[in-house]
Automatic annotation (TrEMBL):
<protein>
    <recommendedName>
        <fullName>Mitochondrial fission process protein 1</fullName>
    </recommendedName>
</protein>
<dbReference type="GO" id="GO:0000266">
    <property type="term" value="P:mitochondrial fission"/>
</dbReference>
<dbReference type="Pfam" id="PF10558">
    <property type="entry name" value="MTP18"/>
</dbReference>
<dbReference type="GO" id="GO:0005739">
    <property type="term" value="C:mitochondrion"/>
</dbReference>
<comment type="similarity">
    <text>Belongs to the MTFP1 family.</text>
</comment>
<dbReference type="InterPro" id="IPR019560">
    <property type="entry name" value="Mitochondrial_18_kDa_protein"/>
</dbReference>
Amino acid sequence: MATPQETKNAKQELDTLVDRNADSTDSNLRYMAYGSRLRTAVQAGHRYVAYTSDIGEAFRPVVPPAVVKAAYSISWLYLAGDVGYEVYKARRRGPTPLEAAHFSEPTRIAMVAVKRAVFQSIASMALPAFTIHTAVKHSKKAFDNVKNPRVKAWGPTATGLAIVPVLPYLFDKPVEHVTDAAFEWIEKQIAERKKKSDS
């Protein structure tokens, strides 16, 4: 979000360019449009970074194992960053009155981190990897009788890649629901235990 001073400076620069009848590609203002488009693309697509491992898994039949391992590394780095970001947001937001009454700050932050890590590990790594691996493995059998060597080699990879865009829709909501229910139960148990120890 631009500060009022930045907005004022941009408006002054725009007014100056208009007064000079400058071409729209003759200033740094054109980069604002690029930045806006980039921000939209990043916001929409950042979730798919977690599925880099699944893209690697889809390419497993045609690339060296090191490429697949590198793809998994990228996914795990994304997950670690996502957990860190959730913890950062939780610290900045602070506890709700209910959380403050029942949990110490380290416990609250640990719960946020563990909950997000469990969600990401299941929804972004385990289930998608199993799905892609299974699809590629079974589609290999289907492509075994194909005469064209390119189709035979790349068919399983194309099958795996075709599944990747569906993965967030397939797993995110159900895993989120189960994770939320499990952690609500855990939080309730911790709160009850604390209540008993306080009395």
